[in-house]
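Tutorial handout. Part one gives the primary structure; part two gives the three-dimensional structure as tokens.
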Amino acid sequence: MSIVACVKVYDGIALGAESMTQLVAEVVPGQPQLVKSYSNARKLFQIGDLPFGVVTYGAGNIGRRSIESFLYDFNDSLAADAAHPPDQLSGQQIATKLLQFIKQPYDAAFSEAPQPQKPVLGFYVAGYSPGSHIATEWEFLLPTDQQPHQPRPDDQFGASWRGIVLPFSRLHFGVDTRLMAMLAQQGVPAETLQKIETASKLLHSQVAFDGMPLQDAIGFCRFILDTTIAYSTYEVGSPTCGGPIHVAIITRGQHFKWISQPEYSIRGG
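Part two.
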């Protein structure tokens, strides 16, 4: 899977991702399955030279191609579209174009697989639309979404994490998000479930994102990634996230800037 994060504050956005990728292939026709994991994938990208970034999570490839290679092609397609200059596109338009672009090879690769067996592939786009002083966020998840949607309105601030959401959600919300469904399965009455859900909201961590400096947004983004990686590392089973961490910020003035961008080396992991 993956863990990626976006922390939006008034002065900008911090985007982060770890680097483990899982390659999916149809060893048996119509049955995609995990064939290999690597720890040096890239999941955080700038969109063209725009004040927009994107993180991707879930499947690490479509067919034999990495998601990274498709995003490079997407940037080329934006630059080649003379009728729609990239610097005039809103966040919603960019996310819509990316969904349309990536859905074609995704559908072609996994068309024969039953819906429950199609690999999850998500994209989270964030940045500044032309003329806006507040950042915007859009996301979509294949194979289910037909249009991108906003995780929060443009005038609201906060943090989002996608992929392996359980570890940090348990910490941040103070309760396992699976609890209510498990209690319902045990026959707990609906009235009691409602009381438990209401009480559990008192356990939520209180974070003032709207007044948070961008440097602290970077720290909170790293906090999400580190927590999830540690959980995955020590939980029974093969780790589902890990490797070097990539972090970037996007501001209205400086646009896209790398904070942590692991370079290629002779060690190769």
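Part three, for discussion. The chain has six helices and 13 strands. Helices lie at 67-80, 91-110, 166-173, 179-185, 190-200, 214-234.
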